[in-house]
C-alpha cells in the first residue's frame, strides 16, 4: 500500500515535470528558486529554516486550475481527495479591484503531519456562469451547453481516487494509474480552439475564455516556494525573464514575514491550434499560463488579519522603504511580541516559539497575479445583480465540508502547545 502522502508527493513531482516540459521558463524559475534557497540557508543557517526545512521548501509546490461548473469542481475535489487533499477556504474573486467571474477554494492536506510530509496545494477556481454582471442569459446558456458537453476527469479515475481516499492509499499498479491519470487531466489540450467563441468569452473575461473557450482544463501555473523572493525577482529579471511589475503582498521588512508574498513571470504567448468559422484550422498564440513563485510567512490570527488589512491599505502606493517603515507601525518586530499580542500563530516548544506556516491564500494577491497576466480587464455590468456564493453554499454544492483556515490553525496550536496563538 502506497500511502496518500507518497501519492501526493509523486503527483506534485509528476505535475512539475510535465509543466516544465510544456513551459520551459518554469524550469528556469525552479532552478533560480533552488539556488536562492541554498544561498539563504548558507548565509543564515538554522534561522533560514524556521518556517520549514530546506527539503520541504525545495519540494513545495502549489498549482492553480480552473473549472466551469459545480459538477466539474465536485469531480476534481474527489480526485484531489485521493491524494489526501481537502478543500480549505473560500475566495470570491468577483470582489477584487478588477472583478474576475470565479469563486475558489484550495485543496491541501489539513493534518500538520501530512503537511510536513508534502504540503502540495491546488488553488481551484470555478466560473460563475449565472452571474449577470458578466454573462447575459444568452451567453450563460451557450456557455453552460459548452461546459456540459465535456468531461474533465474520467469517471474511472474519479472512482479510483475515491477508493484511495477511503483506504488512505493504493497498491501498485493502481497507484501509478492514479498519478498518471491525474497528471493527464491537467495537461494542455491539443484539440483546436474555436477562436471566435474564445474571443467572445475573452471580451467578458480572459479567465472565462481560458475556462469555457476550450474543451479541457490545465495547470494554469505551478508555484515553487522561495526563501528570498526579492532576490529571486532580481535574478529572474537578470536572466531576461519578463516579470510582472511588482511582488504582491506585504512589503519586505526586518520583522517576521507574515502570510504570503507572490510574484510571477508574465503569461507566455504559447502556440495553439485554432479553428475558424469555416472549420479550417490555423496556428495562433494564446496568453494563458505563467510562472508564479511564493514566499510564505507565519499565519496570522483573526486579530492579526485585521491589523494586516489596515497595514496593507496604508502601504499601498508607497516606495519599498516607506512601506517597510509604515509596516513597522502596525506589527511588532519579534516573534515573541507577535505571540504576546495574539497577532500570529506559534507553537510553544522547549526551544521557544515555533511559527506556524501560513498554508493558504490571499484573495487580493491571487486577483493581483491573475490581473497582471490577463490579456484585458474584460467587461462588468455593475448595475446587474450578482449571484450569491459562500463557503457553505460551495460546500453543499460539492458535497464535502470546506474547512475554515482559522479553525485549522487554532486546532494545530491547541494540540501542539496549548496557548501559542490568539
What's this, in brief?
Keywords: Dioxygenase, Iron, Oxidoreductase. This protein is an alpha+beta fold.
Low-confidence stretches: 418-422
Tell me the CATH architecture. Roll
Task: Provide a count of the helices.
Answer: 17
Q: Going across the major beta sheet, what is the strand order?
A: 3-4-5-2-8
Structural class: alpha+beta
Rg estimate, integer Å? 21 Å
Question: Into which percent range does the helicity of residues fall?
Answer: 40-55%
The CATH H-level superfamily is Uncharacterised protein PF07063, DUF1338
Can you describe this structure?
- By secondary structure, the chain is α+β, with helices and mostly antiparallel strands.
- The chain has a single domain (2-298, 359-404), classed as Uncharacterised protein PF07063, DUF1338 (2,3-Dihydroxybiphenyl 1,2-Dioxygenase, domain 1), CATH 3.10.180.
- 44% of the residues lie in helices and 17% in strands.
- It has helices spanning 4-22, 24-44, 54-59, 70-81, 112-117, 137-148, 155-167, 174-185, 195-204, 206-212, 229-238, 302-315, 320-327, 335-340, 363-372, 391-398, 405-416, and strands spanning 2-3, 61-67, 86-92, 102-108, 121-127, 169-170, 193-194, 221-224, 260-265, 269-275, 281-287, 291-296, 346-349, 352-355.
- It has a five-stranded mixed β-sheet. Strands 7-10-11 form a three-stranded mixed β-sheet. The chain has a two-stranded antiparallel ribbon with strand order 1-6.
- A hairpin with a 2-residue loop joins strand 13 (346-349) and strand 14.
- Helix 1 crosses helix 2 (24-44), helix 1 (4-22) packs parallel to helix 8 and helix 4 (70-81) crosses helix 7.
- It is globular, with a radius of gyration of 21 Å.
Amino acid at each position: 500500500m502506497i500511502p496518500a502522502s507518497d501519492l501526493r508527493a509523486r503527483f506534485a513531482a509528476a505535475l512539475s515535470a510535465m509543466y516544465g516540459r510544456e513551459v520551459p521558463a518554469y524550469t528556469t524559475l525552479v532552478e533560480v528558486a533552488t539556488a536562492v534557497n541554498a544561498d539563504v540557508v548558507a548565509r543564515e543557517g538554522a534561522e533560514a529554516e524556521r518556517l520549514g526545512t530546506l527539503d520541504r521548501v525545495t519540494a513545495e509546490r502549489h498549482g492553480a486550475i480552473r473549472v466551469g461548473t459545480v459538477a466539474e469542481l465536485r469531480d476534481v475535489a474527489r480526485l484531489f481527495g485521493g491524494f489526501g487533499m481537502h478543500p480549505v477556504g473560500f475566495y470570491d474573486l468577483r470582489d477584487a479591484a478588477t472583478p474576475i467571474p470565479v469563486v475558489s477554494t484550495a485543496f491541501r492536506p489539513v493534518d500538520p503531519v501530512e503537511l510536513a510530509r508534502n504540503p502540495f496545494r491546488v488553488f481551484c477556481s470555478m466560473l460563475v456562469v449565472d452571474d449577470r454582471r458578466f454573462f447575459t442569459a444568452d451567453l450563460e446558456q451557450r456557455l453552460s451547453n459548452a461546459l456540459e458537453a465535456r468531461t474533465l476527469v474520467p469517471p474511472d479515475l474519479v472512482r479510483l481516487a475515491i477508493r484511495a481516499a477511503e483506504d488512505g492509499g493504493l497498491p501498485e499498479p493502481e497507484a501509478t494509474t492514479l498519478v498518471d491519470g491525474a497528471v493527464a487531466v491537467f495537461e494542455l489540450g491539443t484539440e483546436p480552439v474555436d477562436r471566435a467563441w474564445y474571443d467572445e468569452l475573452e471580451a467578458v473575461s480572459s479567465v472565462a475564455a481560458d475556462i469555457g473557450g476550450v474543451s479541457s482544463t490545465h495547470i494554469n501555473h505551478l508555484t515553487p516556494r522561495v526563501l528570498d523572493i526579492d532576490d529571486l525577482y532580481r535574478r529572474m529579471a537578470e536572466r531576461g525573464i519578463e516579470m510582472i511589475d511588482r511582488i504582491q503582498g506585504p512589503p519586505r521588512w526586518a520583522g517576521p514575514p507574515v502570510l504570503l508574498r507572490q510574484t510571477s513571470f508574465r503569461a507566455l504567448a504559447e502556440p495553439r491550434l485554432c479553428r475558424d468559422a469555416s472549420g479550417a484550422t490555423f496556428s495562433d498564440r494564446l496568453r494563458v499560463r505563467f510562472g508564479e513563485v511564493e514566499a510564505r510567512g507565519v499565519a496570522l490570527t483573526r486579530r492579526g488579519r485585521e491589523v494586516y488589512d489596515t497595514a496593507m491599505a496604508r502601504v499601498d502606493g508607497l516606495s519599498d522603504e516607506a512601506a517597510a517603515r509604515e509596516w513597522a507601525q502596525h506589527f511588532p518586530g519579534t516573534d515573541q511580541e507577535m505571540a504576546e499580542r495574539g497577532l500570529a500563530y506559534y507553537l510553544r516548544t522547549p526551544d521557544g516559539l515555533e511559527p506556524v506556516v501560513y498554508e493558504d491564500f490571499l484573495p487580493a494577491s491571487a486577483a493581483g497575479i491573475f490581473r497582471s497576466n490577463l490579456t484585458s480587464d474584460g467587461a462588468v455590468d455593475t448595475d446587474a445583480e450578482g449571484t450569491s456564493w459562500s463557503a457553505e453554499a460551495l460546500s453543499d454544492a460539492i458535497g464535502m465540508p470546506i474547512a475554515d483556515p482559522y479553525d485549522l490553525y487554532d486546532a494545530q496550536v491547541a494540540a501542539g502547545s496549548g496557548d501559542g496563538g490568539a
